[in-house]
Every structure is written in structure tokens, then in C-alpha cells.
Amino acid sequence: MMANNNSNPLNSEEEEEEEEEERWSVTESLRELAESMIRKEVAEMEMIKAREAARIQAEHRRLERENELMEMMLNSHLQIINSFLSVDRKRKRAEDDDHDDSPVSFQREGAMLLSLLQFNLGM
């Protein structure tokens, strides 16, 4: 029995050391798992940031193209208006020579100009 008592304290010390090593092993494994998960999350966040930056650049390019298109449309409208105005000025000079200022013809021309602009804006 004495041998058992002597072997028990040694065994219990060895068992405690093994349990301690197992705890450290589990702790180390959990720490490695946590670090791995953090690295994965950081990588995902970097991918999301890169994707968002690309989306913003694409949106910026789209808005630039839309702005260029709008400028082209406005320039064409301005050219249309200027051509109508030059024709109208020539017509007014001819009418002043004839002394025929008809308000109906001015209204008709204005209505035609407005409908043309509305048509161009609808395009």
C-alpha cells in the first residue's frame, strides 16, 4: 500500500502536468484559430474596400459620360435656338421692310420652337 501511496503522488503530479499541457495546447489552438479568423476578416474587409473603390470609380466615370452627353445635348439645343433666332431676325428685317408685324406669326414661331425643344429634350 505504501508503494501505491508513493506512486499516487507522482502519478497525480504527472497527471496535473499533462492536464496543464493540454490546457496550454487547447489555449494555443484557440489563439491560433482566433488569429486565423481575424486575418480572414481583415482580408475580407480589404476586398470590400477595393470593391467599393472600384464601384465609386465606375460611378464617377458614368457621371462624367452623362455630363458630357448633357453638354452635347445642350450645345445642340443652343445651335438650334441660334439658327432659329438668325432666321427670325432675317424674317423680322424683311417684315419691317413690309411693315407687317403680326402677333399671330410670332406666337406660331414661338410654339414651333418650344415643341422642337421639347422633342429634343425627350430624346
Question: How would you explain this protein's 3D organization?
Answer:
With 123 residues, the protein is mostly helical. It has one domain. It is 95% helix and 0% strand. It contains 2 helices and no strands. Helix 1 runs antiparallel to helix 2. It is rod-shaped, with a radius of gyration of 43 Å.
Précis, in short:
The protein is mostly helical.
How would the blueprint of this fold be written?
Blueprint (H helix, E strand, L loop, with lengths): L1 H97 L4 H20 L1
Roughly what is the average pLDDT, rounded to an integer?
80
Number of strands: 0
- Taken together, the total number of domains comes to 1
Uncertain residue segments? 1-6
* Oligomeric organization of the protein chains: single chain
Structural class: mainly alpha
Terminal-residue CA separation: 105 Å
Strand content: under 5%
Largest sheet: none
Helix fraction bin: over 70%
SS element count, helices? 2
What Rg do the Cα atoms give? 43 Å
Taken in chain order, the helices and strands follow as: HH
Tell me, what's the shape? rod-shaped
For the structure shown, list the relevant keywords.
123 residues, disordered N terminus, mainly alpha, 95% helix
